[in-house]
Amino acid sequence: MKAPLSVFLSVLILATGSAKADDNPCQDVGLAGFVCLNCTTLGYCIRDATGKWETISMLGCQSDHSFFCSDEGTFGCTWQSQCQVPKRGPFTCQQAGLFPDPYDCRKYHECSDQSVDTIRQCSNGAGYSTLLETCVLDRESDPCTKEQFSCSRSGQVGGWLPDNRYFYVCVNDSTNSLYPLMMKCREGFVFDSHSCVPNTRFKNKELQVKKSNKCVDNTRYECPFRTSENDYCKCVDGDLQVITCPAGFHFDARILTCVSESSYQCRNFEVLSCPNATAKDEYCLCIEHQLQIYNCPSGFYYNPETLICQAE
User: Fold this and answer.
1) N or C, which terminus of the chain has less Cβ within 10 Å?
2) Could you report the per-residue pLDDT of 202-234, keeping only the tens digit for each?
3) Which of 87, 99, 97 is nearest to 163 (CA)?
4) Distance (Å, rounded) from C-alpha 281 to C-alpha 8?
5) What's the Cα-to-Cα distance from 223 to each of 126, 254, 256, 257, rounded to whole Å?
6) Domains of the chain (ranges plus CATH)?
7) What is the CA radius of gyration of the chain?
8) Where are the beta strands (DSSP E) in 117-165?
């Protein structure tokens, strides 16, 4: 009677022992436990006393005979029609909120206001859906089987295909390799080719709100009673108030925000303090080398030292 494959793998792991891998993929994985370092190598991720991740290489698979690494259900080498180990890379929090991992559909990132990244991973064998904010994606779906971003040069910008509220900016890491920075448009906006634009469905909802003489706090509107092209309306405590764009800015009704009248020396999607800011919750985002004024969520203020919105 032949021994089960799992027993064989356990014996092989003990016989092989452990040795440090040449590189450190666990730095990108960010989770303790068994992990496929690549298609043919099972490893283990541990964190030392200083908080640094260490990668331990444990088992090699015979890919010539269609045995590839598996770190789901059965840990080790399993027969597969093709390798299912995702490509990995770094992730850096840019905004507070939940963000999909650009490499592994099973993982998602919970980013704090202080840009602290808490990595989560689905444990039910499914992928994470940003639309439903739960683990329900079919592992055979495109977000789990195909790369959802394309980085060929630094500064390249693209929309996140599974959810157009998200977008990415390609940057170089310390090894000069390109990877995507994941970002999200503000509430009611979606990414359209080069920038975040108002969602049509949300816009219709805004019009309904205005007709009922009500408004959503901290939301911007095109004023029906403005006296200048540089005026817009902002909802404060349930009432519309007329706000004038700061000097050097004009109001762009397409995106409901103040836009710089001249090009600034700034990098695309760089967050900056606004010149002549009129409110403590205002910050500027550089899009196509022009500053656009945005507001922090209600109850938050912009900290010019940390360049993030913080709770009051």
Assistant:
1) N
2) 444 444 444 444 677 777 777 765 567 788 888
3) 99
4) 60
5) 46, 13, 10, 12
6) 5-79 (no CATH), 97-184 (2.170.140), 215-311 (no CATH)
7) 24
8) 117-121, 127-129, 134-137, 157-159
